[in-house]
Amino acid sequence: MELYFYNTLTKKKEIFNSIDEKQVKIYSCGPTVYKDATIGNMRTNLFQDILRRVLRYNGYTLKHVMNITDVGHLVSDGDEGEDKMLKSAREEKKTPIEIAEYYTNLFFKDLEDLNVETPEIVCKATDHIQEMLEYVKKLIQKGYAYETSTAIYFDISKLDQYPILSNVNLEEQKAGARVDVDTEKRSPYDFALWIKAPENHLMKWDSPWGASYPGWHIECSAMGQKYLGEQFDIHTGGIDLIPTHHENEIAQSMGNCGKIPARFWLHGEYLLMDGGKMSKSLGNVYLLKDLIQKGYDPLVYRLFSFSSHYRNKLNFTWEGIEATSKSLERLKMGYQSHLKGKEVVGKAEIEEMENRFHQAINDDLNMPLAMGVVWEVVKQEKKSPQWAELLAQFDSVLGLKIKEPMKKEAVEIPKEILDLLEQRKEARANKDWNQSDELRDLIASKGYQIKDTKDGVEIKKI
Ligand code: AMP
Ligand code: ZN
């Protein structure tokens, strides 16, 4: 069956064929490990995981590389500001290595909880300084880079085309652009390949230009080429990477070997919070552990991410998560009731469902459409282990651990709340309903919601 992906490079949905007949080579821009990954970051990782699983469903093997950025990513995403790792290290009073280790471990824990597979190759920027240096030296030799008193810059005027990936009109942008801080830059769009380190800079390496450190974009070009060659099949990331990071990766590769590094460029859209941006100042930044602490199985978030196509925005609400939690439970129960069923289903019926699911996932990873087919199978009146088997097959893509029960972590209730609950129990025993309601409101003001059920009181974090 044909497989289609929307390619940011050509701005079209195209039939996918791999360079090597059997193996697909993918590069995904990984995390900058200076802070907790949010559920927004995780949406991008979930999209990349679905891509992996769909390729495998189509019979391919994978060589997937993901980098860990532990140096060079400045707070502006461009050439200005402090290195994100150093800023965190200063704020948390740790070394950059400690910061990197700590946040890398948390990142992989989240991936594990979400049943996101680990790419075949995970590589750290700081382990590839030599490869990056060689890459920059070659760009200088070929006339694509120049040195200033602060950095080595890529000279975009040497390219026939820049930008390639984004539709940015540089002339129009220039009119409204900020004045660039480095007056030695030949063009404001030239970007740093290598940066000369100030006196007390913590992360720096010897280079022909003195103690210095790599720019952010060069790591992906150098590691991509090292592990996947000059041109590979698919490059992925979040949409925010298109205009700067990925554009500049292409520029570097064009200078280095005259090739765009990947044939297909796939980009995931953003997760929104109640219709707007997720930001610290709005207090609406959530981590996967926040969902887990509220008692949700982390795979609820995985299923939630299937409710919108990866190229569309997805709006996060707690109501949405609550509804999805019930859906996941229904899905698992549906699987179990088919498993215990005794009916026999015709081969053609099974094949038709399989075909529709396969077509949906092959249509640029259309998970909302694929989930529609999954629910049709779940709701089949004839309960049959054959349907259960088909659902298990679909689960190789869904990754929802459909055969396993829901994982519900007990919500840890602080002693103060337990005491208030006890007082409320007494008030209710004394039929003092006013006191009982007041205590319920007090408990709610402390972040816990209670519900009286026939089996007792249910409590959850708000
Ligand atoms: P950051 O930690 O903000 O640099 O984000 C790392 C990567 O995660 C970004 O390059 C994005 O591709 C992705 N990302 C960040 N925020 C979101 C979001 N709200 N929704 C989806 N992806 C995101
Ligand atoms: Zn990258």
List keywords for this structure.
5-stranded parallel β-sheet, 462 residues, 4-stranded antiparallel β-sheet, 15 strands, 44% helix, 16% strand, binds adenosine monophosphate, alpha/beta
Structure characterization notes:
The chain is of the alpha/beta class and 462 residues long. Helices cover 44% and strands 16% of the residues. The strands form five sheets. Strands 5-4-3-10-11 form a five-stranded parallel β-sheet, with helices on both faces. It has a four-stranded antiparallel β-sheet with strand order 6-7-8-9. A two-stranded antiparallel sheet has the order 1-2. A hairpin with a 4-residue loop joins strand 1 (4-7) and strand 2 (12-15). Helix 6 crosses helix 7, helix 10 (318-340) runs antiparallel to helix 13 and helix 14 (415-429) runs antiparallel to helix 15. The mean pLDDT is 92. The structure holds adenosine monophosphate and zinc ion. Zinc ion binds at residues 29, 220, 245.
- Hetero compounds: adenosine monophosphate, zinc ion
User: From N to C, what is the helix and strand string?
Assistant: EEEHEHHEHEEHEEHEHEEHHEHHHHHHEE
Sheet bearing the most strands, described? 5 strands, parallel
Strand coverage percent: 15-25%
Structure class: alpha/beta
The residue ranges in which pLDDT falls below 50 over 5 or more consecutive positions are none
What's the end-to-end separation, in Å?
46 Å
Give the strand line-up of the largest sheet.
5-4-3-10-11
Mean pLDDT: 92
Number of strands: 15
Rg: 26 Å
Q: What is the global morphology?
A: globular
The helix tally amounts to: 15
Determine the fraction of residues in helical runs and give it as a percent range.
40-55%
